[in-house]
Amino acid sequence: MVRKILHFDLDAFYCAVEELRHPELKGTPFAVGGRPESRGVVSSCSYAARRFGIRSAMGMAQAVRLCPDLRVLPPDMREYGQISGQVMEILHCLTPLVEQLSIDEAFLEVTERPEYASELARMVQSQVQEKLGLPSSLGVATNKLVAKIATDVGKAAVRTGDYPRAVQVVPPGREAEFLAPLPVDALWGVGPRTRERLAAKGIHKVSDFLAASAEELSQQFGKLGQDLRRQAQGIDQRPIVTEREAKSISQETTFAQDVVDTETLRRVLRQQAAQVGGRLRRGGLAARTVNLKLRWTDFTTQTRQTTPSQPVDDEEEIYRIALDLLASNRPEGAAVRLVGVGCSGLIPAVKQMSIFDMAADHETLAKEDQLNEAVKALRKRFGEDAIRRGSDL
């Protein structure tokens, strides 16, 4: 049976939500993201703003220089998350085989549905628009690779200056033909450096992969060459993954001004450790590795990690490990632009004795366990912000 895969993508999701909340924004240049004076970046921008050359991930200060009248809105992630959940409910009504990629993007497999895939795509697009007022674009193909690229091609072909609302269909058997004229960076795994390497070998378009022999590509690019040639043929057998296992949890802070004060860094690390620890607890997870990320004033980034003898899930242990990493890797008085705490190597949590508790006497251990359990219980019942440590104030 020929597979029917849809790639669903909300058009400028954050901006579309803000227009629903503030109708006066429609047709005006605005962006959602951080403040320009605080090194903020553009998370999303309206199509009116894009006419000035503004793009996602651009520094907000540069965006304001390109468009002095640009209106900057702070992101409301709680609102976006709630609306994203409503969108995903609509998708799940069509099929249980939904793979959510991000807050505004998902794959759907509709092979078992009797309707044409193109009909189902327009049905989903119409339902999301009618029920939630949100524009979307879809790609339709026999696999995830081609469906995703189809969405990008469909959106790029719309020149109205408004939400594209595109539906791009790639008929079965026409995958390689559809991909052939596209630039090589349309394929997954081709970034700027790989594109330069490919260009040096005369490979500029997807069709160039088909003109080269498999042996030649393998010799020059190894496994990547084989994979890219397979992609160029439109081959992708990956299934829809309905549940995605978390591989890591992290929290980062970029400072508006470089920080040299050690106490400020410690306070931020404690807050980050609390957030990471909270996410571990909610997921019933523990981490084999704790890492610290530091970015210096020259934009160089350093990441250091520690693997304790036992997996950790407690915010105090995460904080202590992060402090040790900070002390051993930050030169005294060095200014910090960004600091982050992360946990990886996630496994199901099992109640174990802390590596720090092993050195403590029985009474201290009991008191600390009682304190941690009380804090966890209060946060579980009343929310993560219900109780804070005095050192955070």
Automatic annotation (TrEMBL):
Active site as annotated: 105
Q: Does Nucleotide-binding appear among the keywords?
A: no
What InterPro entries does the annotation carry? DNA/RNA_pol_sf (IPR043502), DNA_pol_Y-fam_lit_finger_sf (IPR036775), DNA_pol_Y-fam_little_finger (IPR017961), DNA_polymerase-Y (IPR050116), DNApol_IV (IPR022880), PolY_HhH_motif (IPR024728), Rev_trsase/Diguanyl_cyclase (IPR043128), UmuC (IPR001126)
Please give the biological process terms from Gene Ontology that the record holds.
DNA repair; DNA-templated DNA replication; error-prone translesion synthesis; SOS response
For this protein, the record's SUPFAM superfamilies field holds: DNA/RNA polymerases (SSF56672), Lesion bypass DNA polymerase (Y-family), little finger domain (SSF100879)
Give the top-rank taxon of the lineage listed in the UniProt record for this protein.
Bacteria
Query: In the UniProt record, does the keyword Electron transport occur?
Result: no
Q: Cofactor note from UniProt?
A: Binds 2 magnesium ions per subunit.
* Cellular compartment(s): Cytoplasm
Q: Where is this site: Substrate discrimination?
A: 14
Q: Name one GO cellular component term.
A: cytosol
The enzyme's E.C. designation: 2.7.7.7
Write the record's keywords in alphabetical order, separated by commas: Cytoplasm, DNA damage, DNA repair, DNA replication, DNA-binding, DNA-directed DNA polymerase, Magnesium, Metal-binding, Mutator protein, Nucleotidyltransferase, Transferase
Enumerate the cofactors the protein uses.
Mg(2+)
The Swiss-Prot or TrEMBL record describes its family as follows: Belongs to the DNA polymerase type-Y family.
Could you tell me what this protein does?
Poorly processive, error-prone DNA polymerase involved in untargeted mutagenesis. Copies undamaged DNA at stalled replication forks, which arise in vivo from mismatched or misaligned primer ends. These misaligned primers can be extended by PolIV. Exhibits no 3'-5' exonuclease (proofreading) activity. May be involved in translesional synthesis, in conjunction with the beta clamp from PolIII.
Name this protein carries in UniProt:
DNA polymerase IV
Q: Which organism is it from?
A: Caldilineaceae bacterium SB0664_bin_27
